[in-house]
Amino acid sequence: MAEVDKEALDKETQERIDEPVSEQAEEETRLTPSEAIAQMRIRVPPRANRKLAALLERVNTDKQLKAWWHVANVNAVKRLEINDHSWVHIQIVANIALKLLRQLTKHGVEPAVVRDYEFSRDDAEVVVVLGALLHCVGMAIHREGHEDWSLFLAEPKLRELLEGLYEEPNLTVLTVEVLGAITSHREDGKPLTLEAGIVRVADALDMAKGRSRIPFEHGRVSIHSLSAAAIEEVAIKDGERTPILIEVTMNNSSGVYQVDELLKAKLRGSGLEPYVEVIARIDTEAEKSLIPLYRLEL
Predict the structure, then answer these.
(1) Cα(134)–Cα(181) distance, rounded to whole angstroms?
(2) Whose CB among 37, 118, 169, 236 lies 3.0–4.6 Å from 66's, allowing a Cys bridge?
């Protein structure tokens, strides 16, 4: 890509490129581990799902899990100087994943654990939330191969978190279903279940206000950083043609790259293709006439 003069960029775009992480995630790297985990609290709406409510209570008192999130963020933000991999990212992905699943089940789409094991929809919610909570704990070890490191850390932790909520053999079934969701979020992942596909797509949808899942270095102007900075909002709604409409609002047309490259790659092969429509709108008068509406072809 040709060099771009940073001074030619508007102030907000330049700030998003210079600091592609949330202020909270950046601040967390300057805290001691004890201080950092004391601030963490995952908020996800369990509704009437008692198992999910009990699970969230355990997660919010689990110092080991929170320590992994802290180190993962230090590795990403401080050592590699890439985008946010903090508990903030984890909470966003968990909420998106749960919203996607509930939207699909509302429209009669059956989760894999319901279809294949005669489990309940509540159990499917446990799978997607745990997949989201643990999908990148391996970043605490290393960026390279972090999906495999996540599996290594997650298996015993899953059994610990689910103890008493499930008995064998269901405990093992839930555990490996979550592990399947974790490994499927990698770039070349091939989800075998609806739940795994949901976690994969939810991870990609944490892209609003510069929060791209394509890592880019602080301050470096490139198509990755420019397109990430262009994303203002991601909304998940009822679709007219499909159960889910994902509407991406951009402040300029470079954001199309995020939708057409990152999101499309995560959606293809996810199993969600028949149920999702993606559109992108440009929220500036200067470019509305150029691309009034972009519709992603899957």
Answers:
(1) 10
(2) 37
Q: What is the pLDDT of residue 292?
A: 61
**Mean pLDDT score, 100-126:** 97
Ranges for all domains in the chain classified under CATH 1.10.3210: 19-206
| Residues in a beta bridge with 244 | 238, 276
Tell me the mean pLDDT in the region 17-39: 80
Over residues 36-63, mean pLDDT: 97
Distance CA 186, CA 182 (A): 8
Rounded to a whole number of angstroms, the distance between the first and last alpha carbons of the chain is 26
Asked: is 222-298 a CATH 3.30.70 domain? The reply is yes
DSSP conformational letter for 209: G
Q: Is the pTM higher than 0.85?
A: yes
d(CA 59, CA 221): 38
Could you say which of 1.10.287, 1.10.3210, 3.30.70, 3.40.1130 is the CATH number of the domain covering 19-206? 1.10.3210
Residue 153 per-residue DSSP state:
H
Instruction: Give the span between the Cα atoms of 90 and 264, in whole angstroms.
Output: 21
Reply yes or no on whether the pLDDT at 251 is more than 50.
yes
* Sheet with 276-282, edge to edge strand ranges: 231-238, 244-250, 276-282, 294-295
